[in-house]
């Protein structure tokens, strides 16, 4: 019992906590956010264990299960180390301000139990208050019972306590922003505050990495703005025409290089042409492909040869029937 109330042993590899060093407000608030995120993560992992069971199985006892998980976290974090998980990640630890010593003092057993009660209790009461009021006949919209005077008075007292608690939390937070201590009303009531676990060292900030990240971030935003303005289809067509000479002769006839291959695939989708149409060059397109692309791009060019797309005309093929048995 004496070791619990005495000074906490210094951590390995450094000196002990210094209660005289002020803790940044942002560090204390970040610790609260990390603890809240951890509570939600633990609950999500726990509820996933019952995802294959009957839906709504955990709903009747959900507040009690959340309180039990929070008590388990408290048992393995605050109780032995006087620090929550979020505080450990932010290099913080609770200090007993009720002690007259100038050195660091760990939380007493009463303070640890009070921290668990004032942290878990209000959350459970908030989630369970509706069902408790219904069990007492104090639900909203219900007709008052025979002895409604006492119950109505109890309901008003509960509402008054809730309102006063919210006002007290708001005032405490404003005082915290002014003085930088006790971000929660629970810490102020119990006489505890956060201190650094290890002495803070002077940071040697190198801005080369930050400048490089800012440069790449600005370049990425510039590309996001620029790329929609670039006609990538026209660039692709130009490159294609430079690498592969035109295969269309005079009069729009297909050259020897492409031959009959242009009749077997659409110049836009690459599939067998459906309702084949031509647009002024020797290439064939699906009717719906050329129409949809023409609506999207008023200056559409053929992706094969670079010719500007004109009026789509249906392809007329002449089929010559020959007698295979003729000699």
UniProtKB/TrEMBL annotation:
SMART domains named in the record: RING
Entry GO MF terms: ubiquitin protein ligase activity; zinc ion binding
Identify which top EC class this enzyme belongs to: transferase
Topological relation to the membrane, as annotated = Multi-pass membrane protein
- According to the entry, every stretch annotated as the RING-type domain falls at 266-305
Residues of the region (Disordered) are 1-21
- Does the record bear Protein biosynthesis in its keywords? no
Q: What is this protein called?
A: Peroxisome biogenesis factor 2
């Amino acid at each position: 019992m004496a070791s619990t109330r005495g000074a906490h042993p210094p951590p390995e590899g450094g000196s002990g906590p210094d209660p005289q060093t002020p803790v940044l407000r942002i560090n204390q608030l970040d610790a609260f956010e990390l603890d809240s995120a951890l509570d939600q993560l633990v609950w999500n992992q726990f509820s996933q264990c019952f995802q294959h069971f009957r839906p709504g199985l955990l709903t009747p006892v959900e507040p009690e299960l959340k309180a039990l998980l929070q008590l388990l976290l408290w048992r393995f974090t605050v109780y032995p180390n006087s620090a929550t998980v979020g505080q450990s990640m932010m290099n913080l630890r609770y200090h007993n301000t009720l002690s007259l010593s100038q050195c660091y003092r760990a939380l007493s057993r009463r303070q640890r139990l009070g921290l668990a009660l004032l942290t878990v209790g209000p959350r459970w009461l908030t989630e369970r208050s509706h069902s408790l009021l219904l069990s007492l006949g104090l639900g909203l919209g219900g007709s008052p019972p025979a002895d409604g005077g006492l119950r109505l008075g109890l309901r008003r007292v509960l509402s008054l306590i809730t309102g006063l608690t919210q006002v007290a939390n708001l005032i405490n937070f404003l005082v915290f922003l002014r003085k930088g201590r006790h971000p929660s009303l629970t810490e102020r009531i119990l006489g505890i505050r956060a201190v650094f676990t290890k002495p803070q060292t002077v940071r040697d900030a190198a801005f080369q990495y930050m400048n490089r990240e800012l440069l790449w971030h600005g370049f990425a935003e510039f590309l996001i703005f620029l790329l929609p303005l670039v006609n990538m289809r026209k660039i692709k067509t130009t490159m294609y025409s430079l690498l592969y000479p035109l295969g269309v002769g005079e009069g729009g006839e297909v050259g020897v290089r492409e031959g009959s291959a242009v009749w077997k695939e659409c110049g836009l989708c690459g599939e067998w042409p459906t309702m084949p149409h031509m647009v002024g060059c020797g290439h064939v397109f699906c009717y719906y492909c050329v129409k949809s692309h023409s609506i999207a791009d008023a200056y559409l060019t053929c992706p094969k040869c670079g010719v500007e797309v004109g009026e789509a005309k249906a392809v007329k093929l002449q089929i010559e029937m020959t007698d295979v048995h003729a000699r």
